[in-house]
């Protein structure tokens, strides 16, 4: 595909690379997560396992799209996971709330999926590059509950660094669409360069938290380090935004 044109949209024809690929057993489980995340009627929409409820304004960069989570990068740019939008581009994005349906919605005018990620019928076959950028048709109004998050740059944090993952979803009793978060630490063993990982014990992302941000705190500032992508039996996986920053920055 032509990476300099709108052919990178949700219906583009794109090639697949296996650089920094992940283990086969992880691919199977992430594929399952993809199928569940894009099925809006699925009762297991998603939840942060053993997470905490977020307070309004605690994570003002959070955004919600159909079936998934996302993050605000600037007044017109939203970042999410490719598997959330590869079969159907979202029509809107919601911001400024910890409970879905109570925030402010903006129309999505363009969807750009990383070249190399399958679309359409191949959507659930998980590859690297699980990233997508959405553009809104009007400026997002910033306030105390809606603010952008900067992408992390520089040397990647080492294993053992503290991180926070977050997303909208349900709990063990069903769908609640409340923003939850989990504090955990980075692990790098078996992840490959395309992903960051963390242990799923005692808490982790789960189905449908996909697309939400994994953040790293440096001093008093939070930076987005990854995008919630999927799980294996022991590991949570986050697409590495440092590795693919050039794609993201092309549309910001």
From TrEMBL:
Example GO BP: proteolysis
An annotated Gene Ontology molecular function: serine-type endopeptidase activity
Classification via SMART domains: Tryp_SPc (SM00020)
Stored Pfam families: Trypsin
Record keywords: Disulfide bond, Hydrolase, Protease, Serine protease
Source domain of life: Eukaryota
Every Peptidase S1 domain range: 48-252
Keyword Cytoplasm: no
Record's keyword annotation contains tRNA processing: no
Entry-linked SUPFAM superfamilies: Trypsin-like serine proteases
Family as reported in the entry's similarity comment: Belongs to the peptidase S1 family. CLIP subfamily.
Full protein name: Peptidase S1 domain-containing protein
Naturally occurring in which organism (per UniProt): Macrostomum lignano
């Amino acid at each position: 595909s032509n990476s300099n044109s709108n052919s990178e949209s949700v219906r583009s024809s794109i090639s697949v690379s296996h650089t920094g690929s992940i283990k086969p057993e992880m691919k199977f489980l992430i594929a399952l997560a993809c199928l569940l995340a894009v099925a809006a009627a699925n009762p297991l929409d998603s939840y942060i396992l053993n997470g905490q409820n977020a307070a309004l304004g605690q994570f003002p960069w959070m955004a919600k799209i159909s079936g998934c989570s996302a993050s605000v990068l600037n007044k017109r740019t939203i970042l999410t996971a490719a598997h959330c939008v590869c079969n159907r581009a979202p029509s809107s994005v919601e911001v400024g709330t910890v409970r879905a349906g109570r925030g402010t919605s903006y129309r999505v005018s363009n969807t750009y999926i990383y070249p190399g990620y399958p679309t359409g019928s191949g959507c659930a076959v998980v590859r690297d590059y699980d990233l997508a950028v959405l553009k809104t048709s009007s400026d997002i109004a910033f306030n105390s509950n809606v603010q952008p998050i900067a992408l992390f740059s520089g040397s990647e944090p080492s294993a053992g660094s503290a991180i926070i993952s977050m997303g909208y979803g349900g709990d063990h009793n069903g769908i609640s669409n409340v923003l939850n978060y989990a504090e955990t630490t980075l692990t790098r063993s078996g992840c490959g360069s395309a992903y960051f990982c963390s242990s799923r014990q005692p808490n982790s992302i789960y189905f449908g938290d996909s697309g939400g941000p994994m953040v790293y705190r440096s001093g008093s500032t939070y930076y987005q380090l990854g995008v919630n992508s999927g799980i294996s039996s022991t590991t949570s996986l986050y697409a590495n935004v440092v590795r693919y920053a050039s794609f993201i920055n092309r549309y910001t």
